[in-house]
Specification:
The protein is of the alpha+beta class. 47% of the residues lie in helices and 23% in strands. The chain has eleven helices and nine strands. The chain has a nine-stranded antiparallel beta sheet with strand order 1-2-3-4-9-8-5-7-6. Strand 2 (137-148) and strand 3 (151-167) form a beta hairpin. The two termini are 41 Å apart. It holds the Pfam family DUF3137. InterPro entries: DUF3137. This is DUF3137 domain-containing protein.
Length: 328
């Protein structure tokens, strides 16, 4: 395994050595459970496929056996549902154990606190400042908290969905949930409170900006960086402080962060509020999972990908120079 970078002052000098000594043995002990879980999932998958075949051939089976095709189809559907639900439950249970060992162990080694679920997170400010879109259902997972270069932080993954209703051709109402945000919500703490509230959101074209701007607190802040202006819209109730915070260097770094870590140049939104910097970063994939269970748990690639994902946390502090801003 290649040597891993030192991502935090609290991290071991050789994270690979820590992994080999403490985490890899625990993952090796889980291998038997993983193999058994995979076998059970495969069996249940074969059962579901067989039941699906029986459902599609219901008329033929009814002729051959004399059974009512309704009972054949109903039984097949029941078997498919039970098999898929059972497979999902097995997968979820073994993956949760694996995730706690790998992700939890690496976070602990790096001086971070990891909570996969059932945690408190200050979500309300993200909604109040408009950093995340309106939604009807949300799921927060994988809270990570710690300190880097004197900057305290916490983050979690968020999946936000909006409820929609539509009627099918028979007039029946169908309820669907559409994903409106998937990504990271991050909070960075500062020892000094900001006097105003400054919000940076992706540019939504002139019409979208006009509509969205009507409901935002504060006034539009005009900045001198044309490239930044094309990517973001800034609103603040303290124009002087907003320009003090959004220096040319900080704007350039914010653009680079959006382009390199999210789904695209307009995937990032930020807000200076109270004594916090809030960041909402859209990501195309679920992070901090450690990979699936269909390959051995102790593969080096799992650690490498996880360290890369965790590196985003520290990269944001370093890229935005938040350790210096913590003294403003």
């Amino acid at each position: 395994m290649s040597a891993q970078p030192e991502l935090s002052p609290q991290a071991p000098h050789d994270l690979s050595a820590h992994y080999r000594q403490h985490i890899a043995p625990a993952l090796a002990r889980m291998e038997r459970q993983r193999r058994q879980a995979v076998k059970r999932i495969i069996v249940l998958g074969v059962l579901a496929v067989t039941a699906l075949g029986a459902m599609l051939a219901g008329d033929l089976i009814a002729v051959m056996t004399g059974l009512d095709d309704f009972f054949i189809i109903a039984g097949a559907i029941l078997v498919i549902f039970a098999a898929l639900a059972g497979a999902a439950m097995i997968y979820k249970q073994i993956h949760a154990k694996f995730k706690q060992v790998l992700v939890g162990g690496i976070c602990e080694a790096m001086g971070l606190k990891f909570s996969p679920g059932r945690f408190r997170f200050a979500f309300a400010p993200f909604r109040e400042t408009g950093l995340v879109p309106g939604h009807d259902r949300r799921n927060l997972e994988d809270r990570i908290a710690g300190e880097h270069n004197g900057v305290r932080f916490e983050l979690c993954e968020a999946l936000l969905e909006r409820r929609t209703e539509r009627q099918d051709s028979d007039g029946n109402t169908k309820v669907e949930y559409r994903t409106v945000f998937r990504g990271l919500l991050m909070i960075y703490e500062f020892p000094k409170r900001f006097q105003g509230r400054t919000v940076v959101v992706p540019d939504a074209t002139w019409l979208g900006n006009m509509i969205v701007g009507l409901g935002r607190e504060g006034e539009r802040v005009r900045l001198e960086d044309p490239r930044f202006e094309r990517m973001f819209e800034v609103y603040s109730n303290d124009q002087v402080e907003a320009r003090y915070l959004l220096t040319p260097t900080f704007m350039e770094r914010l653009q680079r962060l959006a382009e390199n870590t999210g789904e695209g140049p307009r995937s990032l939104a930020a807000a200076f509020i109270g004594s916090r910097l809030l960041l909402a970063l859209r990501c195309g994939e679920n992070r901090f999972e450690g990979g699936h269970i269909f390959k051995p748990f102790d593969q080096p690639e799992r650690l490498e990908k996880l360290v890369e994902e965790l590196g985003i946390i520290f990269e944001i502090i370093d890229t935005l120079d938040l350790d210096n801003r913590s003294r403003i």
